[in-house]
Design a protein that fits this description.
Elements (H helix, E strand, L loop, with lengths): L1 H4 L2 H24 L9 E4 L1 H13 L4 H11 L3 E4 L14 H34 L2
Antiparallel strand pairs: 1-2
InterPro entries: FlgB (IPR006300)
Family: Belongs to the flagella basal body rod proteins family.
Keywords: Bacterial flagellum, Cell projection, Cilium, Flagellum
Length: about 130
Amino acid sequence: MPEVYGNGIALTEKILDFLWGRQTVTLNNIANNDTPGFKSQYMTFEDELDRRLSAANGSTTMKGGRMNDAISNTRASLHTTWNESSRLDGNNVDMDQEQVELVRTVYEYQFMVSSISNDINRLRSAAKSF
């Protein structure tokens, strides 16, 4: 598909995978709200993806291939919050923060699904004209 639509669909697919992972981590934090000693986790991927795409964009040789490699080689990072804890049982899950993160991730996921759906519909529409 990259030949037809560039790297847009591959990038959207990768972001959807990351958002799914972030949602899973957030739901795990919420599920462990009452587990003594549990430390919350969070997932990041935006900075590494931005860094890799910027580096690939700056390269003059095989730009399309480098972008595709940058997208496929980006990995999410899972972090554990060790120091923050305001509860006596050592658990540091902040339910308000987790719920906000969950809603934000759901909205981002819905936006990306809508985006890829629109891209595919445009391709379908263009293909019908031939």
